[in-house]
Structure formats: C-alpha cells, structure tokens
Amino acid sequence: MTESLSDTTPDSEVRALHRVLVGQRRHVLGILDGLDPKDLRRSVLPSGWHCLGMVQHLALDVERFWFRAVVAGDAEAVRCLASGDEAWKVPPEVPATDVLGRYRRETELADAVITATPADAALAWWPHDLFGEPHLHTLRDVLLHVITETACHAGHLDAARELIDGHRWLVLT
User: Fold this and answer.
1) What is the pTM of this model?
2) Long-range residue pairs from 94-98, CB within 8 A, at least 24 positions apart, any chain
C-alpha cells in the first residue's frame, strides 16, 4: 500500500484521511498475518462469511468500487462490478495469496485515484440502480465512507481471528 501519498498529495485533509485509511488497510492485512489458507477460508460466524471472502469484498466492493468506479468513473471498473454477494465468494481453486494480492493491488490503484483527485471533486459515476440518488458527492465523502467501512470490516476480521485461534490485533491491558 502506498505510504508516500501523504508526501505527494497537496491537500492536507486528503493526506490526513489517507493516513487513517492506510492504517485500517494495514489492520485488515495484519490481523490475518500467520493464518494458513485453510483458516482463511474457515467460517466461524453464523452468517457464513470467511476472512478471505471479506478481503475479496474489500478489494472489489470497497476499494475498486468506490475509488476506481465511483470517484474516477473507470469504465473497466464499472463494467466488472460484481452483482449481489459475488465478491464474498472465493472459489476453492483461487489461492489465498491471489486474493490478498488483489487487495494490495486495488489499494494501490485506489491510491492513484486519491492522488489525482481534489477533495471536493464531484464523483464521476454514481450507481443509481443500487443506491438511488447520490448520498456521497466528493472524494472527501468517499474517503470517509471507505475509512468507516474498512474499519468496521477490520473489526469483523478481529472477531473472526480471535474465534479461529485466539489471536488479537490490539490488546490494551
């Protein structure tokens, strides 16, 4: 994940928001560090999702969707949008390293969009069929939304990891 964005983006607010997002992305990958591929696919909650599916959701439905499709209007990103809960489903033949690598690549591509976009820039595309009238309007809005969603899912991954092997990301005692 790009750490140098804070040095290259002129908008101090975007730099600050990006630093928070980078921290949440680090949390997502850090809480999974050391889990074997079998445990990454192990569902421990009644809803049935597993850690690898969560990471793929973050890569495709969060990073790619919000930054490349919505903020930048990238035609390929819009065309490749998953429908329903497809992003959560990782076929058994897809290696865990591929999913984790896809997340890293999507965050890098998202960082390129963040770097190139002013905080108050209007969104290039909006999925009216999914969300109706826009409730987010600028890069700033999307950054705040993605920070919130990533942090929420990092917490889900914390709970799953603790149920899998007792490991906890941040322990304050």
Assistant:
1) 0.92
2) 95/37, 96/37, 96/40, 96/41, 96/52
